[in-house]
Amino acid sequence: MTTLSTHVLDAVTGTAAVGVSLTLTGPGGEVLTRAGTDADGRARLDADLGAGVHRLTFATGEWFAAAGRETFHPEVVVAFTVTPGADARPHLHVPLLLSPFAYSTYRGS
């Protein structure tokens, strides 16, 4: 069983990105769960991730629009692989550092 969390930070303001909507999809494209970031910019997505390629979609366009800010990316999609067997990690963390015209992500701990 593998679980997932994220942390979204606004690189321009240096603050947590509160209220970013998230959608997690599985290897077949099915929606596994939806969530939103909390007051600290964090979200735990309650789903048992099986092996394969999953996608975490951040609704960045909606979030920037709600703040009255322009953005180039209407959404950020981070695809990642869940590895089965002995190399499986019980928990994955996918942080997102966000600005209106760029973003970065990595496999966190």
Automatic annotation (TrEMBL):
Record keyword Hydrolase present: yes
Record flagged with keyword Hydrolase: yes
A molecular-function term among this protein's GO annotations: hydroxyisourate hydrolase activity
Keywords associated with the record: Hydrolase, Purine metabolism
GO BP, sorted A to Z: purine nucleobase metabolic process
Pfam families xrefs: Transthyretin (PF00576)
SUPFAM superfamilies per record: Transthyretin (synonym: prealbumin)
Enzyme class of the recorded protein, top EC level: hydrolase
Residues annotated to bind substrate: 7, 42, 106
Domain of life: Bacteria
CDD domains, A to Z: TLP_HIUase
Catalytic activity: 5-hydroxyisourate + H2O = 5-hydroxy-2-oxo-4-ureido-2,5-dihydro-1H-imidazole-5-carboxylate + H(+)
Role: Catalyzes the hydrolysis of 5-hydroxyisourate (HIU) to 2-oxo-4-hydroxy-4-carboxy-5-ureidoimidazoline (OHCU).
Subunit structure: Homotetramer.
Family according to the record: Belongs to the transthyretin family. 5-hydroxyisourate hydrolase subfamily.
Protein name: 5-hydroxyisourate hydrolase
The species this protein was found in: Kineococcus radiotolerans (strain ATCC BAA-149 / DSM 14245 / SRS30216)
